[in-house]
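Internal ticket - ligand job 343, zinc ion:
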Amino acid sequence: MTPQTRTSLKELQELDHEIAQVRSTLQDFEHLLEEVDAPVIRSEQDVKGLQSRLQEIKLVESRLELTIEERRIRTKKVQERMEGVRTVREEAAVQAELEMVRRALENDEKEALSLLDQILRIEERLSEQEAAYEEALVEIEPRRVELTQERQGAEDRLEKLEGERGAFAEGIDPKERQIYESIMAGSGGVAVSELTQDGACGNCFSLVPLQVQNEIRHGSMMIRCEGCGVILTPESAEGIARAEAENMRILDALRITEAEREMERAVIAETIATEEAEESLVVEAGEAMKAMPTEEEPESEVASESRSRAATLEADEDPSLSEASESVSSSDDEGMDEEATDV
Ligand SMILES: [Zn+2]
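stdout (structure tokens):
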């Protein structure tokens, strides 16, 4: 695998990530549109339900109308037969038939009236529902147009990206592309990953042996992470910059903690010094008290004593000071002498 292929695979992955993002955006649009459409769809279903119910009832009613028509004709015929009866028995039979036909006709006419009433009520409800549907349609229209336009934008972008991706993939070695595709299909959308600065896989962070790291950085083989299987590439300039920025941040944080610790240490040292000084003062005061049984102004006595002791200490500690002053004065004297002789 040449460095060129590595860069190409990485770019291919970037394109694939972009495509995946646009696809998920498109899905979001589908959900949004469904949400926007929901009330209209419900209203539409109500309208359709009423329409089919109306159709059924109208069919039943028209069949009933036919039956009624037949029964009327039959009634007429029976009435005509009544005119031609000769015997009482015959008359009674025709009369019975006529009664039966009339009763059936009456029932059918009642039923027809009830159906017509139902049809009327359903038609009223239907026109109400149709109005509600139109209203809902008008209400959602602006949002619908907006979303549809945005979705169209995303679709165009997807088409463009897929075109780019196709052309780009053509330029990559088919074998390596195949490996890339198979990793991509199996993993959660990562097939190529950079080494981290400390030599780990940038995807699963398992450590890569030094020799393998060198092979990745300088060799020509395609090397995959033993931990997660992604194709490993050397760290990019941006990757290094990112890691360095992160390191700087950590170092800064550490520096701040160190400074805080030093301040703490200084405070502790100061406290100890103060305590020691106070202790020695107390001891000295105790000694002075023993030496002065008269208790006449013990404090000033102690102060003056410690001052004189400090003076002796200074003189003892720095004998060079007095020597230096002696030598200065002696050289001055010599100079004076010389001047004196010149004159
Ligand atoms: Zn890995």
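Auto-summary: Residues 175-235 form one domain. The first helix runs from residue 3 to 83.
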